[in-house]
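SAMPLE LOG
Freezer: B-3
Tube label: C17
Construct: single chain, 163 aa
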Amino acid sequence: MKYRRLTKEQLEEMHPEFINFLATQSITAQEWDDIKANKPEVAEEEIDVFSDLVWEGVLSKAEYLEHISSSTMNLFKLGEKEMELISIMVGDELIDITTAQGYKWLQNNLLDDTVKIFTAQKEYGEDPNADKFKLIETGAVITKGELYRYFDDLMELGKENLD
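STRUCTURE (predicted):
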């Protein structure tokens, strides 16, 4: 298995897709019930293959990831050949940017001495989707990129004001 098995809840949500997946392998509902009852290891393998296919599709379409903790915000833009990172760290332990109040403080105090902003770019390894998956496994979530674009735009404005 390349990624990880979908959770029971995820599999239930994808029931129609799983039925189609079985159908592409010419496995009928009756045959599937027989496989589950008499060859559970084969059923497990089919679920693993399906999970990998789902993950592959999701990861290929993902454009942004976010990993946010109380003091750090890591925002990733997933390009074709590399990922770009905007990392924001708040050094004041009293500020929790996962709360509405803490995030508002961050927006209003980006130039505060306790706020550090870094950017980086990194080329993917041999398998871009595996690199993305590692980030998800460590707590990142797929997003539409609003936060990334917000901070990217702010940094562009800051650069223009310096010129």
